[in-house]
Amino acid sequence: MEGEADGGTPAGRGRVSANALLLAMVLGGGLALTLLVRWFWSSGDPTADLVLQLKSAEGEGALQLAIPGEAARLVSGRASFDRITLELTPGAPDAFATATLDLEGKLEETQVHSLGYERVRFTRDGRDWVPAEGLAPMLSRAMAALCARRRALDGGKVADLAGLSHRTPEQVRGDPEVARVLGLSERRYRVKGWYLRLERDSALVSEDSRLTGSSPERPVDEQRTRRLELKLDPQGEFYFASGLM
């Protein structure tokens, strides 16, 4: 028949191949389209690729942030990048994306909700653009400071607490609330939730914590909500600007 005969010609075989490619893309769904768009734009203007990398991290579990000092990752349950602006210089090895990030997730059993400023640096790696410090560097740095404080309070590490607050060990020991926490035996300091508001050079944090242990007078088991203030130092790391507790 005419259709069968046509399939045997070069033109017919070309149409079959094109149809097969189209079918594969349809069946592959978003993944195939994502790869195609990223390949196209990485070879020229990276604008679409950078935006696509941010938006592709919005699905449940798609954004997983490595936190310095922590074995587990912060895994998003929901994330949304908005108000994205790009800074690009033709031929430059770096590009920047500034955005707001609204994230809800978990670091092991700790609930995390963050809203605010992110500035993501991308570096060229061959034909690809790679986020040099992950897709949420501000949140990752703030979480690193919060986790380090939690570990130091739990382990009674005064020198670490001093470094995190830009104070001397003597000043840390002189803080009545810190001294009370560190004075407990069998101490456990656990965080149930961190709620962060990120700005360009600071973060306001609400912390829900549970402290257990024993004092000379009685057992201790208390739950509290604290407000903490973080600021960026000249090295780009967060420290506790208004006290540790």
Give an account of the 3D structure.
The chain is an alpha+beta fold. The chain folds into 2 domains: 1-43, no CATH class; 45-245, Nuclear Transport Factor 2, Chain: A (Roll). It contains 8 helices and 9 strands. The chain has helices at residues 2-7, 10-28, 30-42, 47-56, 137-155, 158-165, 169-173, 176-182; strands at residues 64-66, 73-87, 94-107, 110-125, 128-131, 185-198, 202-214, 219-232, 238-240. Strands 1, 2, 3, 4, 5, 6, 7, 8 and 9 form a 9-stranded mixed β-sheet that branches. A hairpin with a 2-residue loop joins strand 3 and strand 4 (110-125). The longest helix has 19 residues, at 10-28. The N and C termini lie far apart (83 Å). Mean pLDDT is 87; it is low at 1-7, 10-27 and 30-43.
List key phrases describing it.
alpha+beta, disordered N terminus, elongated, Nuclear Transport Factor 2, Chain: A
